[in-house]
Amino acid sequence: MCNAAVVDIGSNTIRMVAYHLEKQSITAFYEQTENAGLYSYRRGDLLDEAGTRLLVNTALSMKQAAYKAGCETVRFFATASLRGLLNLPDILRRFEQRCGLPPRLLSASEEAECDFLGLAAENGLLDFTGCDLGGGSAQIVLGKNGGLQNWVSLPLGCLRMANRFVKDVLPTPQELKALKQEVAALTAALPGEFQNAPGAVLHVTGGAARASLKLTQLVLGNQRRIFSTDDLSAAAQYILRMENPAQWLATAVPGRERLILPGIAILQAIAAACGCQTFRVYTYGVREGFVYKFLLSQPEGR
User: Fold this and answer.
1) pLDDT tens string 154-189
2) Which residue ranges make up each domain of the chain?
3) Average pLDDT, the chain
4) For the domain with range 109-281, which CATH number is right: 3.40.50.300, 3.40.50.720, 3.30.420.150, 3.30.190.30?
5) Residue-wise pLDDT tens digits, 177-235
6) CA dihedral 133, 138, 139, 144 (to 10 degrees)
7) Whole-structure pTM over 0.85, yes or no?
8) Which CATH number applies to 2-105?
């Protein structure tokens, strides 16, 4: 058995989770999260200087915390947060200088595979439709007969959509309508096999999904990990009817005040496109999939 930490560099959050690893078993025992909002530091296809400093300093701090927590290994990876950046070589060079090694930049297909592995490890299903909604993109995976049959990556991250359509903390009715139209257009292009996906439940992971679950639990007064599209609509309407929703959201879902309504709209659109009306939220996702794919199977690799 050994202890290893993974630092997940996302478009909205940077999260470090430390795990006990033993054969094919993983157990999280420590974590740190920073709502860095890296996607907001993108200037076209560049990550600006402030964003680069924030990224490197946060990663270094989390690496140091992981070693203090008893980890022998710390690995970094990034997804849509860094994919496609024109100044990526410079970012990776500076990252490696400070942190000792660069982050592994997952391709969209590798990210989808990690999402699938993480969800499959937790839900134990052979056939399922899953979704990881992040800040920069949404990965939709189709599992059949215990394997990843197909995947789609959509530019529907909740921070990406919030930055594009929402000027204030909460969207105006006009902003929300425009956002929903864009999301509906993108999800309508899903391949037919996703539109006839197995089961009526969309198995979801990611910060946006977990924030939506927490919100529905608060609004509906229950602790279930399953909720419906109607439950999401009720939670959204509850927010929109409040006199000071931003203040309440800052306590209910800190760091996601601007993202919660875009996230709900995206989850509902993806579920509708896949023919699902119910969501089940999971703890495991891309980080745990990364551990299974790159640490347990290749413990000595970078």
Assistant:
1) 999 999 999 999 999 899 999 999 999 999 999 988
2) 2-105, 109-281
3) 93
4) 3.30.420.150
5) 999 999 999 998 888 888 766 668 999 999 989 999 899 999 988 888 899 999 999 99
6) 70
7) yes
8) 3.30.420.40
